[in-house]
């Protein structure tokens, strides 16, 4: 398979951390997150939207919230520009989850072109690799309910504007929710090889072999764009609180080991992952959500998991921030 945009060398995987300022840490006002205990990651994950007027937990969108300004939709503060201004993250790429639920038709009609152009200008000015997850978890029927026809039109319009504006430092990531969508569904929702740089999926419970198969068939690298330990069996969700030293070893064995095995066994196609290092149970968006209300995935709160994580991250497979990394990725 020929190298795709921003794809690292064979046998290497980019390490991303998300998904809010407190989770990532490494900053003056956010100094108890992942980066304060472990190596600065090769990338960080943030979110924004093309959904002006929509509301989430008392926050009203203007569009592109969380990029140039602080935003909080009930899941922690997010502000992409802060990372660009801080030397800790000078060698760090950025993955952006771009939501536009209920606005795909407006985008397709050109009503949000000004926001797309503003985002394009910001990406160009960032001068580093940006992974843009357009309409992420498109098949999350229960929470995203995208219209397929308009979703595909919206994707094409964003791609066209970016191409016209010569946004060369962006990779477009097409991300499934992970598990539940077969090859037929994926093909129906796929924007097309010429419009997609990476495939992606979310990894909470089980590995998604469907997306791995799809990506291989289309010669695309895979970004596990969201990953956090969720323990679920027969629609029952169990405690995944890494603060609990009675179960942190169990969580490592039951979730982390299979997760890393999935990466190792699929090195030919999995080229990046983003771990969500968050106390989910403390955030308004998730406090009543059955999937995440019992989850504290912060690695640093468990001595055992911290040791095991550091050991894993020392393997040559994993790429963290280092001088020259971004320049090398930009050449692809």
Describe the structure.
The mean pLDDT is 95. This protein has helices at residues 21-24, 80-85, 104-108, 113-126, 148-164, 183-189, 209-217, 248-265, 303-313, 325-330; strands at residues 13-18, 43-49, 55-56, 59-60, 93-99, 130-134, 170-176, 198-203, 222-227, 231-233, 236-238, 240-241, 270-276, 295-296, 318-319. By secondary structure, it is an alpha/beta fold. Strand 8, helix 7 and strand 9 form a beta-alpha-beta unit. The strands form four sheets. It has an eight-stranded parallel beta barrel with strand order 1-2-5-6-7-8-9-13. The protein has one domain (13-330): Glycosidases (TIM Barrel), CATH 3.20.20.80. It is built from ten helices and 15 strands.
Number of beta-strand segments: 15
Gross CATH architecture: Alpha-Beta Barrel
Helix vs. strand class: alpha/beta
Q: Assign a percent range to the helix content.
A: 25-40%
The H-and-E topology, N to C, reads as EHEEEHEHHEHEHEHEEEEHEEHEH
The CATH H-level homologous superfamily = Glycosidases
Largest beta-sheet characterization: 8 strands, parallel, barrel
How are the strands of the largest sheet arranged?
1-2-5-6-7-8-9-13
Secondary structure topology:
Blueprint: E1 13-18, H1 21-24, E2 43-49, E3 55-56, E4 59-60, H2 80-85, E5 93-99, H3 104-108, H4 113-126, E6 130-134, H5 148-164, E7 170-176, H6 183-189, E8 198-203, H7 209-217, E9 222-227, E10 231-233, E11 236-238, E12 240-241, H8 248-265, E13 270-276, E14 295-296, H9 303-313, E15 318-319, H10 325-330
């Amino acid at each position: 398979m020929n190298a795709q945009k921003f794809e690292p060398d064979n046998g290497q995987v980019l390490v991303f951390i998300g998904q809010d300022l407190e989770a990532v840490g490494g900053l003056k006002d956010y100094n108890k997150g992942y980066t304060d205990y472990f190596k600065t990651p090769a990338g960080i994950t943030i979110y924004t939207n093309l959904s002006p007027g929509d509301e989430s937990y008392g926050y009203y969108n203007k569009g592109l919230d969380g990029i140039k300004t602080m935003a909080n939709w009930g899941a922690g503060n997010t502000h992409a520009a802060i990372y660009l201004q801080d030397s800790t993250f000078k060698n760090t790429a950025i993955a952006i989850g771009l939501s536009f639920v209920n606005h795909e038709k407006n985008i397709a009609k050109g009503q949000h072109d000004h926001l797309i152009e503003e985002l394009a200008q910001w990406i160009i000015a960032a001068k580093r690799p940006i992974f843009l997850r357009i309409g992420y978890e498109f098949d999350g029927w229960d929470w995203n309910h995208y219209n397929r026809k308009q979703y595909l039109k919206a994707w094409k319009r964003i791609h066209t504007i970016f191409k016209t504006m010569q946004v060369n430092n962006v990779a477009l990531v097409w991300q499934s929710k992970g598990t539940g969508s077969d090859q037929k569904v994926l093909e129906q929702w796929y924007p097309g090889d010429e419009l997609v740089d990476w495939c992606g999926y979310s990894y909470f419970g089980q590995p998604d072999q469907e997306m791995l198969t799809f990506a291989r068939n289309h010669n695309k690298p895979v970004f596990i764009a969201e990953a956090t330990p969720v323990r679920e069996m027969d629609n029952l969700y169990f405690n995944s609180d890494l603060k609990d030293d009675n179960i942190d070893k169990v969580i490592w064995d039951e979730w982390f080991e299979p997760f890393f095995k999935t990466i190792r066994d699929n090195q030919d196609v999995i080229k990046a992952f983003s771990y969500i290092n968050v106390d989910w149970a403390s955030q308004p968006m998730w406090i009543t959500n059955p999937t995440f209300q019992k989850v504290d995935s912060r690695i640093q709160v468990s001595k055992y998991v911290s040791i095991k994580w550091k050991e894993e991250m020392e393997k040559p497979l994993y790429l963290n921030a280092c001088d020259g990394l971004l320049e090398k990725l930009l050449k692809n």
